[in-house]
Amino acid sequence: MRQIALAALLVASSPVLADEPNYMPTSATAQEFAEWNAFLDANPLHYNTRPLIVPLTDEFKSLTKRINVEVNRAPYRDDGPRGDEDVWTLLGPDGGDCEDYVLTKRDQLIRAGIPAAAMLPAILARPNDPDGHMVLVLITDQGDFVMDNLTDYIAPWRESRSNGWVFISRLFGGTTWQIIDDR
């Protein structure tokens, strides 16, 4: 895991290539999420200042695949937003909903040595569906890849938009979210 962290330091100054088709194009600042801010207050290890590109090595692929599959085995439980307070937190023994899967995957990857800034939560929506969906975006030197609790396959971001989902916003850094120009 040290090799992954050291390799990430080598590309830490690399800009996120928003003009490249393999990376999510972002534009204006999006709304902040109070749930994210509350999660950060309780979990400062997840704070990052700006996106960071990491190398897509075999070790990185193996680690992310293992964690994605393991976390996806947790039971799904929709804990909001239908009147219940939707708290973004790590998965508990009773499972959780999509953002809880994202935060748990991110937490395990951070503890394995992947920089928080290389893993950004993203919000998706689809027409006529009041409930959004959250995934974890891995920013690599070969593009943005998506970890989703709906599949064990880690897909390039453009391949992950099945069933009418459209990317809306993603974390940029700290508490700042950006709009994704998903056209």
Strand content: 15-25%
Name the helicity range: 25-40%
Counted by DSSP, the helix tally is 4
Overall tally of structural domains: 1
Q: How do the strands line up in the largest sheet?
A: 1-7-6-2-3-4-5
Question: Poorly predicted ranges (pLDDT <50, ≥5 residues)?
Answer: 1-17
Give a count of the beta strands, DSSP E runs of length 2 or more: 7
Give the overall silhouette.
globular
List strands and helices in order, with pairings:
Layout: H1 2-10, E1 26-30, H2 34-42, H3 58-72, H4 98-111, E2 119-125, E3 133-140, E4 143-148, E5 151-156, E6 166-173, E7 176-180
Helix pairs in contact: 3-4
Summary?
This protein has 183 residues and is of the alpha+beta class. It contains 4 helices and 7 strands, in the order αβαααββββββ. The N terminus is likely disordered.
Task: Describe the overall structure.
The chain has 183 residues and is of the alpha+beta class. The protein has a single domain (2-13, 26-180), classed as C8orf32 fold (Roll), CATH 3.10.620.30. Helix content is 26%, strand content 25%. The chain has helices at 2-10, 34-42, 58-72, 98-111, and strands at residues 26-30, 119-125, 133-140, 143-148, 151-156, 166-173, 176-180. A seven-stranded antiparallel beta sheet has the order 1-7-6-2-3-4-5. Helix 3 crosses helix 4 (98-111). The chain is globular and about 40 Å long.
